[in-house]
Every structure is written in C-alpha cells, then in structure tokens.
Design goal:
The chain contains 7 helices and 7 strands; from the N terminus they run E-H-H-H-E-E-H-H-E-H-E-H-E-E. The protein is of the alpha+beta class. It has one domain: 3-Layer(aba) Sandwich (Aminopeptidase). The chain has a 7-stranded mixed β-sheet with strand order 1-2-3-4-5-7-6.
C-alpha cells in the first residue's frame, strides 16, 4: 500500500511523548482499556502513565514507529523480546495499586490472562499496540503504518501475533492476513479480546 507519510522509528523525548499521546487518545474509548480504567475523569492521566511505561519498554528495540505526520503509532516486540524490563514489571504492579487501589487486582489479573493467551511455541513479532489519533481516523494512517510494518517483518520472515482489544478491529486485521486464534474476556463485564496470528510470508 503506497502512502504519503512513510513511518520512522521513534527517537528522542519529543517523539516518544507524541507516540504516548496518540495511544492515550486512541485507546480512551477502547472497550477493554476503558473497562480497565473505568473512571473517565482520570483515565487519560492513567493511560498516559500506562502507555508511557509500555512505549518505554518497547524502545529497548528499534520497533516503535510513527508516521512522518505523527498521527499513527505502532509498538512491536521482536522475537524473544519482552514488553517490559523486570524493573518495569514491578513498576506496573506498584503503579496500578497506587492509581486503582483495590481495583488493581482485576487489572493485574487481566494482564495475566493476556500473558496466558500469548503463544510461546514459535518465535514471532508481536504487535503490542497500534493507534491513530482520533482526529485523523478514517484516512488509512494506522493501516498504512501496519502495512509498512508487515512488509518489513515479511522481509525477516517471521510470523506475527496481536490481540484485538476492540472487536470492531478484527475484520480490519483479517484484511492483512491475520486469522483468529482465540478469544478471552479479561473482565467479568464482558469486553472480548481476540488473539490473532499471521503466518510468516517466507515460512
């Protein structure tokens, strides 16, 4: 897919902050992550901390991407990598307890379910986060970024894995070669997360 805003790897404090801010807005009304942080008045601040932690963890690898117009971001973890460093894992639990009190337990359990449904039997690239600034949705920015990322992964020749936290996005990912692997409910109130797999182009 051709596009006029080719991506670049996130570098520096300003681009990192922009990547986090895109994710804050992109996931504000996401069924899963809005349920994780139900207080809408506090959600942006909470999400800014959460996505900042995950972007920081992913920046250990050269796989956090922004479109050149800085309206869409993707966060990938390469084969053998982890989303967070050990110290950040501790920061995640401590930070959730600080921000959510007793409500942290349900979110920590949700993260455990994400981990339990993550495949371990084959090395793969993991699309941890993909978001578009809501002011620019519907223009193909996020999907163009995904397409460019997948082209790069195809050159490496590994499969890909993701979790669709919004059921509305499943059909979009299917257009790019992902197939449904499993589904689970991280919270009792019902948002469904769909795990998806894309075979390597040159397996």
């Amino acid at each position: 897919m051709s596009q006029s805003h080719p991506p670049h790897v996130v570098q520096g404090t300003q681009q990192t902050a922009r990547a986090v801010e895109i994710l804050v807005e992109a996931f504000h009304d996401d069924p899963t992550w809005a349920s994780a942080f139900p207080d809408e008045s506090a959600r942006r601040v909470q999400h800014r901390w959460l996505w900042g932690l995950f972007v920081s963890g992913a920046l250990r690898y050269p796989f956090v991407w922004l479109t050149d117009d800085e309206v869409a971001v993707s966060v990938w973890i390469p084969p053998g990598g982890t989303e967070l460093a050990p110290a950040q894992e501790e920061e995640l639990e401590d930070g959730l307890r600080e921000r959510l009190g007793t409500g942290a337990d349900r979110v920590l359990r949700a993260f455990e379910l994400f981990d339990e449904h993550h495949p371990r039997d084959e090395p793969h690239h993991y699309l941890s986060l993909l978001g578009t600034d809501p002011a620019h949705r519907g223009r193909g920015r996020g999907l163009s970024l995904l397409d460019d990322n997948l082209a790069a992964v195809d050159q490496i020749g590994t499969p890909c894995f993701l979790e669709a936290s919004n059921p509305a996005n499943v059909s979009l990912y299917e257009r790019y070669g992902f197939t449904v692997r499993d589904r689970f409910e991280p919270f009792s109130e019902g948002p469904v997360v769909t795990t998806m797999w894309r075979e390597a182009a040159f397996a």
